[in-house]
Amino acid sequence: MALPSIAPYALPTEDELPPARVPWTIDPGRAALLVHDMERHFVDAFPQGAEPIRTAVAHIATLTAAARAAGTPVIYCAQPSGQTPAQRGLQLEWWGPGVGDDPARAAVIDELTPLPGDVTLTKWRYSAFQRTRLAELLAERGRDQLVVTGIYAHIGCLMTAADAFQRDIQAFLVADAVADFSPEEHRQALRWAAGRCAVVLSTRRAAAQLGDPGRRPDAAETAPPSLAGAPTGS
């Protein structure tokens, strides 16, 4: 039931990414950036100082900096320490007690520490939308795009992207700013997302789109009716 020991592997390169089925691009006035499960407990399952986590962390840092500079909300979701069996639910049978009782293990790693103005949500299930205020927070801020980074690609990141799609929120999965148990599961997550619910793109492209609002269509013309009239803000 414990996390697997993860062997080093190379992150996918831009020319390996599955093609997009839809022409979505990130609009910093419509998007929010999600940093998913980058707690010490999960990050320590990777070989430290090696791929894929070394570059994934650096890429997430690049994207959080770009988002903050663009006025795009940065949202963290992280599991708490000391979860009860009732709080763990079925995850207890699949993964054990989770983070455990040590608050230090539940903290986001130092390299990605949330800054003032960022939002941190307590996460309870695979999808960051489940039992949180993520959907309400996005609606309150007039955001109908979610850029997903973090771990693990084929579990929480993929489930969050699929959940966003089912809520009419455009999902973007950043292929080299997520990491997984293995290269096979990482690439499987990218293929599934690109074929069914999200645009899969590189950190380079995501950062460029966050930093160049002139490349996106006007949000008022493309946002769905449920969010088009919502207030904007960071």
TrEMBL record:
It is an enzyme of class 3 (hydrolase). This is Bifunctional isochorismate lyase/aryl carrier protein. Keywords: Hydrolase, Lyase. Pfam families: Isochorismatase. One of its GO terms (molecular function) is lyase activity. Residues 210-234 are annotated as: Disordered. The keyword Acyltransferase does not apply. InterPro entries: Isochorismatase, Isochorismatase-like_dom, Isochorismatase-like_hydrls, Isochorismatase-like_sf. Residues 31-204 form the Isochorismatase-like domain. Transmembrane segments: none annotated. Its EC number is 3.3.2.1.
